[in-house]
Here is the input.
Amino acid sequence: VTATFTPTPGASALMGDLDPHGVAPPCALVVFGASGDLCARKLLPALERLARRRALPGAFAIVGVARSEWDDDDFRAFARDALAVHGDPLASGDPTTQELLTTLRYVPGDYADDGTFRRLAEVLDDVDRTVGTGGNRLHYLALPASVFPTVVAALGRHRLDHPPPDAFVRLVVEKPYGHDLASARRLDESVLSVFDESQVYRIDHYLGKETVQNLLALRFANAVFEPVWNRRYVDSVQITVAERDGVGHRADSYEQAGALRDIVQNHVLQVLALTLMEPPISMDPDGIRDEKVKALRAVESLDVHEVATEVVRGQYTTGWIGSDLVPGYHEEPGVSPTSTTETYVALRLLVDNWRWAGVPFHVRTGKRLPKRVSEVAIRFQSAPHLPFGSAQVRDLDCDTLVLRIQPDDGVALVFGAKVPGHGFDVRSVAMEFLYGAAFPDEALDAYERLLLDAMIGDATLFIRGDEVMEAWRIVDPMLQAWASDPDETLAFYEAGTWGPKEADRLLEREGRRWRRP
Amino acid sequence: MNVGPWSAVADDATSGEAALRSLRRRQPGGARRTAVLSLVVHAESDDDLAAVLDTVRGLAGHSPCRTVVVVLPAAGAVHGNGGNGAGNGSGEGDVAVALRAVGHPGGAVSFVEDIVLRVRGAAVDHLEATVAPWLLPGLPVVAWTPTSLPRRDGPLVALADRVVVDSERLVGPPGPVGLADVLALARRVPVTDLTWVRLEPWRELFARLFVGADFAPFVRRVETVESEGRDLLPSRLLAGWLASRLGLDPAVVRVSGGPRPALRASARHGGRRARFRVERVADGEMVLAGATIDGGPGRGRTLRLPSRPAAHVLAEALTAGSRPDGVWESAAAAALGLRPD
Here is the structure.
C-alpha cells in the first residue's frame, strides 16, 4: 500500500467526515428571559443534552438576562434545579453538566434600562477574553412578544447587534411573532430596523422535529410519491394536530392566543407549506424557504364573511378522557368563566395554483381531544371504476398516505386488499413504517436541533419574515370575524371527543369525513 | 422480549422462512418486521456464536436487521480452502431461526429475526448459495467477521456490500494479519473498521479544538504529533489520521505505548505556539480536551467519554453507508509508515 496523501485545505481539514452538517463555532448564548419557564423547561435541558453529545462549541458561555435580582451563583442554582426537574435524570452529578453550569453568567436588570445592556456588554467582553468566544453572539429572546421591541432597540443602541470582523451576531425569536398581521408587521419593522433579516432566526420548534423534515425527504427523495402529489390524484388533505392535555399552566398566555394563533398560524401552516411546496432547487435555507413562501401565497384568503361557513371554532366542556373526568375550559385554573377563547379550530382551505386547484385542505387542531397525535393524511381519489359489488367493497376507504409527526413518527399507506377466502371482499389495510424502529438511535430533540442550527448559522428550519406575514395573512380574516362576534361563533365539544359537531358538518356537506387518527 | 424461537435441523430456507411467517402471524395484529439491512456474521465456534448473539441482541434496539450467523471454522469459509470444512460431506446443516420483539419508546414494538446456520459437509463449498436465500430482498448486505479477516475472493465478500472488521483484534502482533491486509480487503469491498468507529469521539474532540477564529489558523501549521496508548493500533490510526489529513512528514509523528491514551499536537502560527491535546485524565471515563496559545486564549473541557458496549459500536458501524471510507483508508495507509517507539 502506498501512502500518498492530499491534505484537505483550510481549517476543516480534520472535520471532513466527522460532522458534515457543520460544527458550532465558539459563541456566547445570551438568553433574555433567563429566569423564565422556557429557559428552565426547554433551553437548559436542550443545552445539557448537546453538552453530553459533545456538540456544544469548545469555547461557549451562557449569559442569562432577566429582571430577577440574581447573581451568577443564583442563576447556576436556578439552572441546576431546572435540570434536576426537566433534564436528563442520568446526567445528575455528571461532570459534563457541572462544567456546563460553570459557563453560566448572569446580568440582572430591567429591559428598559440602558444600564442592563451596558453590564451585558461588559460581561460579553469578559467572556470573549476569558473563554475565547471571539465576539460571536446568539441573542435568544425567551420573552413575551410585547418586550421584543424594547430589547431589540437596546441591543441596537449598545451595538450588541454588530459583530466584529469574522464574527456573527444572531437573534433568535420565539413565537408568537405578533398577534395579528398588523402587529406582526410592526414587530418586524422594529426588529429589522436593528438587525438584518439574515441575522434573524424565528423559531418554530415544530420545524425541528425529525418527521417534519422527513416530509421533505419523503417527497423529494422518492420518485414514487411526487407524480401523484397533485390535484389529479389527491382528493383532499387532512392535517390534524390533536392534544390530549388541557390548557394546563398556560392559561394566561393561552387566553390571549387561542388555538388559531397558538397552533394554526405557525405549526399547522408550516406543515401545510411543506406539504404544498414545489420541489426546491436546492436544500439551502433560501431554496426551501422561497418555495414555502410561494406555497403559502397560493393559499386563498377567506373573506371575513366566509369564515362562518369555512371555519369552526370550539371550546371544550367537561368530559371523560380515558378513565379521567376532566374539567371544561371554563373550570380550568386561570381561565375566565366567561372566556370565549377557542381551544379547537377546524377549517377548510383552498390553494390557487396549478398543482392544487380544487383540492380542499382540511385542518383541525384542539385541546382535550381523545389522544395526542399530529399527522398529515393525503387522501387519494377513488379508483375510476371498481369491478366489485358494493357489498364487496363495503369496508374499503380511499387510499391514504399518512405522515405521522407525533407520537410514533412514521409513514402509513392505507390501501385495499382482498380478504382471504372464497369470496372477493376488499377492505382497507394499513402498511406502517416507524422511523423509530428503522432508525432507533436517539435523534436530536427539536430545541437541540434548532439551537445547534442557530449556532452553526443554518437558517433552513427557521421562519423567514415573509413566511410569517403570509401565515398571518391567512388567519387574519378569521381573527377579524371572531372579534366582531365572539359568542356567536363559538361551538362546544365534550373533552375526549374529536371536536364539535359543526366540524363534522364542515366535511359532511361535501361528502367527506374526518379520518380517525 | 423473545418470541419463539422456532428451530429445525435443515438447510432449507423455504421452510425456515415459513416458520418465521408462522411466528409473526401468532403475534396480535401480526408482527411487523422493520429491517434496514441483512447482517451476515461469521462465527468460528460455539463460543464465538454466544458472543455474537449477545452483541446482536443488544443491536436490535439500535439498528434493526435480519442477522444470519454462519457457524463454520475459519479455514472453511472465510479464509477458506473450500471443501475442507468440518462436516460429514452430506451437505446438510442445522438451521435455527428466532423471532424477537424489540420495544421502542412510546410503546411501539417491532420484530427482528436471527438465523443461525451451522454449515457442514458439501455446503461448505457453496456457502454463497447457502446464505443467499436468507438475505432480505432489496436491502444491503453487511458481513461482520468478529475474529477473522475474510478472504478477498471468499464467499462472504462476494455476498456483501460492505464488510465490518475490528482491526484492533486482528492486526498483529499478536493478531494474525497486518493492517496492509485490511487495506487490501478495502480495495475489493468497502470496509468499516470497528476500531476506527471507537476512535471517532477522539477524532471529533481533537478536530473541534481547531474550530474558531483564534485556533483555526494553527491546523495547517502543526509541527509535531504525539499519540500514546496501551493499545498501539488505535494510537497508530489516530496518528495516521493527523498525518494524512494534515500532510505531515512521518518523522514528526511519534507513536508510543503509555498507560493512558493521549493525542497531542504542537503548532506554530504568526510567531506563536499553540498546543492541542485530548487525553484520558485517569483510568476512567473522563477525558480532557484542551487547546492553549502562548500568550493568548486557552480552553479546556473535561468530558465523559465512556467505552461503549460492543453492540453500540457495531450499530454505529452499520449506519455508515456503503461508500468506501477514504478518511480511514488514508489514516490506515499513513499508519503503516509510522513506527512505534
